[in-house]
What we know:
5 helices, mainly beta, 3 domains, 6-stranded mixed beta sheet, Jelly Rolls
Amino acid sequence: MTEADAPLTCVIDKPTRLGELFEADFLLRRCFFVWGADSAGRGRLQVKTWAQPDSAYAAYTLTEAYKATPQGTQDAGFSSQHEDDDFYNIVKVEYDLRIDGSYGSTLNIIDAASVRDHGARPFTIKARNTFGQGSGFSPIDSLVASFSGLFTMTSKPWLVLKRSIDLNRFESTIPGTVLSVTDRYIRNPATGLRYNHQTGTGGLSGYPGMVIGHKFDWGCAEIGRDGGAATIRAPAGEVEIMLVPSRTQGTYCPTAQVDESAANAGYNAGTKTLTTYAHKFTESSESNDNTYFGAGDKVYIYEIDHQTAAGLSWSDEVATVGTNTIVLTTGLAGWDNTKRYRVTYDAYSTVTSTQKAKVYQADDADGLVADTVQAYGLGFFGSSQSTQATVSDGTELPVRHRTTAYGDGRPLDNAYDRDAAVLCNNLIQYKYARQQPTVVASSEIRDGNTTAGDWLAVEIYPIFLGVGVPTAGRTRSLFVAPRFRSKVGTAYCRVSLCRRPPTGSSLTNVTRTAPYVEHTFDTASSSFVIPTAEALDITHCKLEDGLLGAVGFLLVEMSTSTVGLGSNTDYAGLAVCRQGPWT
């Protein structure tokens, strides 16, 4: 569920029904309660979400074999279809609830194409538990982003298929379940063709749909009336399935990265064999990257991190696939073993019909892929990132994009999208990481403290740390190092990163409110020194929007091993003050 782990602030000023309290939250997250069998077959109350129907993500396949009705009733194979016009193409979200019950902000989500074709059909969501950015409570931006991802699927009329189901699917085909549907009684929404018994074509065949309603009766024995014989009521079930008439969906084209650590940077010219990494673009629990290619596939091998806009590239055909190897048909003339390479699908006009089941880029001029098929749309499956996904390595460097990465008919492969994510991570980890040294022209000497061991505050200031609540086990540090010296004995410099500002009536021994982290530097040098920078963990600070959010407070204090604190130490600022990457 979207924002399932985000804090939610509920303002309850009078007795309120549970449904009324959370109705808007469920609408914005496109989720609902339903009773049915879970993955282990246990019946229980669940929370399901709407999802873009896609056969590749179907939980079940419904064919003619799964139809069933009680003996002596209507034809078990019968199905009906109608268009559902219960849709909305303008959604107004009211949020930022005020004390008088009104809403301080509104946001409109409009499907302009649907409004043009079907007229305005508005709907209002009063998001009583949702507030704007900066409030620290249920920010609206992330909710609207996920809501919009599925909005166009439900902002136009859709087809509803009604058909019987057998008792084996009574509790598993529950609302929210994505199916692959085969039905001879229904015209194919994409082609308009009915099933042809002579050719075996037409009708629905592996068409994606989502369950939006179901009912069933397990049946039982019924006592006879007025002395009549007992009867048996047979089991019966029916399911309603949403079919989206226009569907241009698919999954990413695969990519495998050539292993540059292998001999000749991963290419054997004699056998025309590429050696690839096992899991550059898949999880270790999944099949190896090269196994997503097959014999006969038309492939494109290209250089990454190239110095020119184009770089080296070849088009070839897969002969065979082995253990982390791809054997080519023609071979790669001009291979340069000082470079790195990847393998993906070739252009749409070149690849096989099987390969065309994946996603390719459309031309922005005519909205068609290679002047042939409609542009693909973004699918929304109502779930967040898999909890099994490997956490990104923040130190990984981005790669240069190629001119052949985009254009009419080019494959939409997972490598380029992953590269975009790596680039964003790199910007956050390094380019936009906070750097705030405070070197001053002359040393700051604080007089007036003559007690050895006391701490004198010489610098206090807020520092922006950024927004981004860490996932479990992740940390980020602020690296600090002062420039200071001792005049007599040993000088100490204590740097603290606090969540809240320090307090006190003087600069001596100020009060630090937990939580905070600290590190103490020392030197006996009479010349200014900059010690090795030390890491201060920032995750105890409030790394989110709201009051005192996204900032920490740096406190720098000086002390000495001898009397005359102020005159025996010199502090010339934090020579190092920078954020490191998430680790």
